[in-house]
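Supplementary Text 2. Reproducibility record for the structural model of the 390-residue chain.

All settings were left at their defaults, and a single model was retained for analysis rather than an ensemble. We include the record here because the model underlies the residue-level annotations in Supplementary Table 4.
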Amino acid sequence: MKIAKNVNRLGTETAFKVLAEAKKLEKKGKEIIHLSLGQPDFKTPKHIVEKLIEAVKDPKTHRYSASKGISGLRKAQAEYYQRRFNVKLDYDTEIIATLGSKEGLANMAQILSVPGDTILVPNPAYPIHAFGFIISGADLIHYKINDEIDLMTEITTKIESSKKKITAVIINFPSNPTARVCSQDFYKEIVNYAKKNEIILLSDLAYSEIYFSEEDKPSSILEVEGAKEIAVEFTSMSKTFSMPGWRMGFAVGNEYLISALTRIKSYLDYGAFTPIQVASVAALNSKVKVIDEIRNVYKERRDILVDSFSNAGWHIPLPKATMFAWSPIPDKYNKLSSLEFSKLLLEEVDIAVSPGVGFGEYGEGFVRLSIVENEQRIRQAARNLRKIMK
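Retained model, structure tokens:
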């Protein structure tokens, strides 16, 4: 059967190969400790669920919704940006609700690129950063984002050495998978550079609220004066409020691009189920302590993971943000590929992690560990790990 060649360019996400193996082992009775997928294990805060139930009982909410998001939801997102980043947004022209940040990024790729266009994407990176543009037929150039890399030098070198003009640059800080953060100075530099060179910036800010010190508190690219002229930013409620299955996110920023995304979505979907949007308003209007409580649990788990794994013989660099730790393969096993090492952990000590190569070729030699198991399970993983680290 013939399918579009761009689909064949996608391949299979390596992380899901490990997950599939883990499920096979669980069917055989193995108890796997899942540190692979970024699947929050917290309950969605009670007041958000209660608002969903209340809205579901209203028959009017079961009708077709608005693909750009109900006005109350867009207003709540505008108020959140004002409170959190001191960024003023027009809820009617500069904000659109998306089915998670992933859908927004994928559809924005359709707007910005056609076969022959060239996009600069991070590597290693969350797969949709590249795959959205692969589906649209664009060509990709990758830039490295490991901690030792100077970001502006890396990005400008790639742009200026490209034979084709770069249409857009994807940036993602705090980064999935590397947990790298960036400064406001970086945003200022890249906005000024992009404006001079007529390049669009797409900022993925999905982990804006998962950080572990005020020094590393993420900012928005839209805080930079003039950023709206060339930038769109994507956020998600999945991690901040433990709502991954609700599929609620936003794209905000450049009025022209938000308008184009609105037109595209009007042909593709009717937006999220209205009760989900109503409940999302309650989430965005949550007291600060709701977000603080979730963040503090991640911090405690992060500290336990780093300390207990270090005591077991595997030094994990301390992540400054996100729900992930990004670690080199231990010296004892550095001759193994990241996929081979991930399989070793799974088969020998019942720990599932994501191989770095699944996030791009520059991820080889690393694995990503998700802090999505409770403290007891993380300590158990460390005890299991000792068996192969002796």
